[in-house]
Amino acid sequence: MKFIKERLEYLFTSTKGLVLVAISLISLVTAIWGTLSGPMVEWGVRDLTVRLLGMKLDPFFREGRIIMLYHTIAMAVIAIEVYLMTSIIPMKRRYKLAINATVTVGYLSSLIFGLGFAYFGRNWILHGLFLFGLSLMFFTGLLLAVALWPWNKEYYVRSPEYAHTKSGVDLERVAFFTMVVATLGSSLFGAVAGAYFGNGFETFLAENTVRFAHKTPLQLGIIGHLHIMLTLIAVAITLIVGRWLDFKGIYHKIAMPLMIFGTIVITIGVWMVVPFELIAHMIIYVGSTFIMLAALMLVIYGWRKLIKDRLNELGIEKAGFWKGLKALLHDPLKFGALWQMVFMNFTVSGVGIFMAIKLDEIFRIWPWREERVTLTGHWHVLAALIATIILMYYADMVGLKGKIRQWFGWILLIGSDVAFAGATIYSLKRLFVKAYYQEPVVSKIFLAMDIGLAAVLVILALLLLWRLFDLFKGEGVWKREKENPEVEVPRTSKEVLSE
Amino acid sequence: MRRILIITLAIASLMLWGCVRQPEKWTHEEIKYIDTGVDPNTWVLIPAGEFFGGQFRNLRHLRKLNYDYEIMVTDVTNAQYAKYLNEALAAGKIKIENHQVKGFYPGEEYTGFRHERKIGPGYYLYYPLGEHGTRIKFDGKTFTVDKGFENHPVTMVTWFGARGYCLYYGWRLPTEAEWEKAARGTEDFRAYPWGNEITPHHANYDLSNKEIRKVLGVNHGITTPVGFFNGKKYGEFQTVNAVSPYGLYDMAGNVWQWVADKHERMTDRFMKGGSWMDYDIYLRIWAYNSALPYNYYINVGFRCVRDVKKETPQEENPSGENVEK
User: Fold this and answer.
1) Residue B58: its chain A contacts at CB < 8 A?
2) Among A228, A240, A482, B74, which is disulfide-ready with A10 (CB 3.0 to 4.6 Å)?
């Protein structure tokens, strides 16, 4: 009994344990639900999964199922970001406990009952519990906003290294707070439309309406909701990575106002999609430019820091290009987290801008089916990039060192980037290959994507299996993490806080 | 570490290698002719009546067509389209310009809405000659079909070309509602023309490609002869008699089918049924695709309908609510 109690205590009360549970559940859902599409269908794995688990894949409800699946995974990802925030941002202990407890019940309810409803039987109780989970997630956001209130003098910053106002308000905290408030509003934005479409289950996927000349305000609401939520999840992870790498100095001072302003502008822009669709995009472009500039500041700072730290470690005072590059690539986890933000510009922002510029000239010449592939492709890639950044941070958090750290980091980075580059090329294939000749190209791209994804999944499975077996050890890593449950970042260290 | 780099480079090279192999000039193909026993000149009567349109089982989506019409049992084949091109060329109804078959279209309303294209009166592309993927060729006098493709659905035909064919014979393209009623019938609410289950033996789509290649002796995805999925066994490949309640073939898979509807402030025309290139989700009765009316694709064809009585086609919604057509 004590054996189980101790482990459950670790898994559900420590930040590191909570993150592990959420990552494990997302991995499990991804592994199982990943068999329902792509090459797995051709190999007959889908049928096996459906039979084994007793899934019900009614063709009428596919859109509804997909929407619930996206929500369940998104809730777990949000939960991870919340756990990390409550650990790396100073806040009152009672808030931290309440937030972590609420978000845990929230995401678990939405994940378990949401998938239960969507894939195992359309039972109204399950649907109600799914909504209960989503409501708790919203309530978590409210608590988090209260806990993060930046104008609480207790959290004022005195150190000149970090962005703050004259009076000492921590601008990074403001950025977190802004992101949380924007998320709350944006979730309501989706909830209103979702309540209409969900009631009666007349669901639709936003990409299916992209060419309709007339979209209802509620349809526009859904389109806006999914875009802004993913954007805000990306903003959150960027800020979290900033904490991880102890983002400070001049770049921090430039980045934080940009991030705050960008978050506000892009959120307003997306909300404006409903009443003023035509000008909303211009506002969104402005907001996203600010956010991307803020992320660029973090990347510049982070890479310079990685080089500097490594050269200091080696005792090298002056280094040329190659030595600098070697130092930069020394830590695939920290380098990788920032690289993914750069890579995102090629596979997401770049594609998006290109689409916007050439929409009528190229993409609207393609059949809608092809445009749809590009649309769904770019945001799946963004979601997956965020997931890899979380995994890199987690791998660092659990203390992967030496060769294991190198192998894990590089396989995760190269595997995912090969897959995402493949997905991007696939979605844009019509630019360079005629439909009649696409098959060999597509097969090769799929092969590359499958190899990349398989590499990521294998390395992730190994990490999780290690953590699973570790739980059976008396004095395993879990024990150390239980005794030291918080994620350590320099900004929450005693030295900085007592400044 | 070096190994990872080598693997990455190898994958990148493979991908690049795959991307560059694309011949400049189209070489027409020949394949084995397969007789399905289905006559593409057959029509079937769709009687007036109610039917469920779209995806959702809800009275709001109960529609009614208050007129009878007839629809082709199969998609229009290459042979039928080549015959039409020969007849229409002789009759001066089409012209050939820069390797393109063109026909007249009277134009349509243009509101200047975002992404809308101006389609004024004039000659528009029906069928591109010598384009990669075409199965009909022109020797300067006559249109002929590549050997083996005679009873395959015509593809690479634009919406204008599909409309032109139907009008030439006094027929027309089906509206979306007419197409859905013909695919689903009135008896029940189903996802596919034959029911709610789909296997590679029901239709020509992504999952059945592998088996179909063996039957047709080709190494790439391809259309199947019209009426292929009729319960017959072709070599080792057993098909299901996957007809709609009215006995229509290929209402799911093989090729997308242009439908007539012109939606307000949109230039795109819609297609129904899914194709050999698509996943099963696109084969569901309510699924759609859309494209500009002057574009052509290797997986898009059509079939026609004809009026039985000379009444103005009118769609009603028995529930009394407005239904967007």
Assistant:
1) 200, 202
2) A482
